[in-house]
Amino acid sequence: MAISLGNRAKMSTSTTGTGTITLGSASTGYQTFEAAGITNGQTVRYAIEDGNNFEIGSGTYTSSGTTLTRSVTESSNSDNAITLSGTAVVLVTATVADLFINDGASNLTTTGVGTFASLDISGDIDVDGTTNLDAVDIDGAVNIAADLTIASTNKILFNDASQFIQGSSTTVLTIAATDEIDLTATTIDINGAVALNGAITGATNITLSGELDAATGDFSGDVDVDGTLEADAMTVNGTALATVIAGTTVTNATNSAHVLVTDNESTNEENLIAFVEGATSSTGNVGLEMDGNFAYNPSTGTVSATVFKGDIDAVNGDFDGTLEADAITIGGTAVGSIFSPIAGGTGIVTTGALDVGSITSGFGAINNGASNITTTGVGTFASLDISGDIDVDGTTNLDAVDIDGAVQLDATLTVGANDQGYDVILYGDTASANVTWDTSADDLIFNGAAGLVVPKDKITIGSTAVTTTAAELNKLDGAGTLKQAGLETIWVPATAMYPATTNGSSALTQVETTALRPDLMVLDFAAAADDFAQFSIGFPKSWNEGTVTFQVFWTPSNTNTDNCIWSLQGVSVADGATIDVAYGTAVSVTDAGIGTVEDQQVSPVSGDVTITNAAVDTQTYFQIFRDANAGTDTFSGVARLLGVKIFFTTDAANDA
What are the extents of the domains in the chain? Predict the structure, then answer.
């Protein structure tokens, strides 16, 4: 937060209380905040002086209305906001925290931003937050003790722009150089595929555990292949291998043992399979012959014959006719052992998925290992015991549920439906202690020892939050009518008043009505004259220091029915302040004569009376007068004042 300062800015304020200050005029010899250069919305360091009280803090200046908020850092009120009397002064100032004293040993600390044309640091620099530098030129070694992140696709450059390391995308790291990248490690371990656009040179061996896939391969030395070498075409010194063989003279023995074979994987035809003539020996020079009933179709990949004898070991087998065998095994297990559980054994063991069809009653356990059991129909079980997790994508409809362990719900739990509820009971460890949602009563009921524990300020009735504490609620136990903050009344009889020294009313007078009936204790206010009387009140601490209203109790001295005007004004005086202070603005109330001597008259309630310097812990002086010189006060008789009701507002139930 930037703090603004201004020279010689000091202003008065008539604000009272602890809230936002409304600034008045510049003090003598000083200037206003605006004249000192403070603009709307700036935060200033301020000091308040109010008699022996002081307050230092920061606040936001608002030019409209000329106000200043208060955020206290130090004060005579235990570092809280002081209660302003209405005669305080406010000035712009700097505190020790705003200044840096260069004693050669102190640190410079700021919560704002330091702006420097240049910054030369001879020692270490320790930055707890993020350092954002537009450019960095480092002449010495750099030791980075944590991860170094290069944002986006930025590069780490070496020498010039052609040599760099760059994360060119979220999945690709590019290492670039103009001529050569020299890796000096003894072993380079690459776990993924390697795509090379250039040549690999050098005398070091390249060892591959997988395949070598290259557009072309040129080997200047020998090539040693321990396994099978498979190629779409092979050349010897640039000449096709078939051409080389065709031009080579071989012996009859070689010719008779080797034949030219071509690849055919697509033609849909029955090719006869050649076999050794006579089958008298598996070696030597023998002839070939074939049988018209033994053939292979390259397109379908099928071998056909009239009969197959011996063992058949196949990855996949498709038999169009009848399969007849002395013994059949599946996965090394005799078929009889596999199908015996179906006839009532203890279990069916599978190594894959059970295909379409149905499994009816009479089976024992079905153990399919780690494979899934999938069905598009309905599984019906007398009971179902699942030792692992169960994941249901659709709706699970259970007539009754008994859950022994914890339940985790990741969505809304709904019991019943609109207009159709069901009871929900939550039991405690104590007998008969439970919480019941009773749908017949539409009530949540706590039974037995069950209780409700709610954090403070977490109860809302309607839309109103209940902010009271448990201790405060306990005070209601056995209480009768509770006193609340609000409108209060003080009765001030004429016997508690006194005539003003200047233009005063009559002295307190006792008037007998009829012997041994109520006497009148009155102050008389003459017609056609402004007579004044005074009294004082010490308002309770619960007073909200706001405006008051009043109601006049009086009796006429004659039968005139014209208007009588009563006025009231007030001022509060704090401890240590002068009592020689002007009253506030008077507020009037009009009441017409009732027409009968010695009748009780009660005026209407007045408008709001603003009391100057209103504050608690003060003595408030009031002045009541008859404004007989006002053109509308036409009551011709003496107005006899019996007393005044003062109405004021509290903001607390008591003065604690």
Answer: 10-98, 420-475, 487-649
> Nearest to residue 59, comparing CAs of 112, 22, 12?
22
Residues 525, 507 contacting (CB under 8 angstroms): no
Nearest in space to 48 (alpha carbons), one of 62, 39, 24, 2: 24
Question: Measured between alpha carbons, how far is 564 from 279 in angstroms, rounded to an integer?
Answer: 149
Among candidates 628, 634, 643, which has minimal Cα distance to 560?
634
CA dist 206 and 190 (Å) reads 12
What are the residues facing 274 on neighbouring strands?
Answer: 290
Supply 109's token pair.
């600390």
Return the SS3 of 550: strand
**What distance in Å separates the CA atoms of residue 27 and residue 89, rounded to the nearest whole number?**
8
Pair of tokens at residue 53: 């009280």
pTM of the model: 0.36
Q: Can you say how many angstroms the Cα of residue 275 is from the centroid of all Cα atoms in its chain?
A: 81
Distance CA 352, CA 331 (A): 12
Tens-digit pLDDT profile for residues 126-151: 777 777 777 777 777 777 777 778 87
CA distances from 150 to 153, 165, 170, 322 (A): 8, 10, 12, 70
CA angle 145/148/152 to nearest 5° reads: 170
Residues 200-232 have pLDDT tens digits of: 666 566 777 667 777 677 777 777 777 777 777
Nearest to 626 by CA among 536, 508, 500, 496: 500
- CATH number of the structural domain 487-649: 2.60.120.260
How many whole angstroms separate alpha carbon 523 and alpha carbon 521? 7
